[in-house]
């Protein structure tokens, strides 16, 4: 009898161990999935509710995510990563991603995915000026890149650090192209940022949504989706401006980490972010989903008119990625 009890107890402990192990595996680590950015907070909750997979929030930016993936290459911690499009091919070339073609892969436009499946676009945003009107006081809302150089905006302009953040690097290129530069010639942008440095800009490394909402950063080079969220969801005195010289539309991508600890859960997460439900959620968070038909008429009505967006051009990801090292080097040496 005692022997049977001992066997039963041992089996019970083994079963409990298996349950605990299974429960522990119901998670996926995503690098660069900040809950305050692009409404990742709602997506992470939906993944938990729909898939039973916990994805802890992670506040890295694209550059920090790739650096961590490379440092951990021999023993990966993450299962999936979310990156600004400029970082897609560099991540692939570093060998930190592995091919996976999620459900609905075939619907993604060819120029918005890696042909082998190392990365794919989930949504995009348009870069412009995220402005807290109340924090400006009596100063007018700037309407152009050139306006930011005016003395009246001294200490009021912010942009994310171009040496590491994808949005910072995009800002350099958007201004560069708007002012007559090319993907190979960064002189107009470097001249602009050197002039802007005289206006004492605020240059954070991390997403700074809350700092704009609070008025700490009155003007931030940022995406339309953050500004619309502030305006319509958080009811803050903010607005989005597409500079009159023009700007860029930028895709955000995801990929499966090579030899990540929970590949099956990682694949489920990647399937989810391209699902009709997730794509509609991105649209409701004021991003343009990669599947345009998932942007509801109600959500689209909150965007600036199409005539304004006509000044926003798609970025050439390969040319931007090629220019990335030069952006970082020249900004660090000549501006920072």
TrEMBL record:
Residues 1-24 form the signal peptide. Keywords: Signal. Gene3D superfamilies: Periplasmic binding protein-like II. The keyword DNA repair does not apply. The keyword Signal applies. This is Extracellular solute-binding protein. It comes from Reyranella aquatilis.
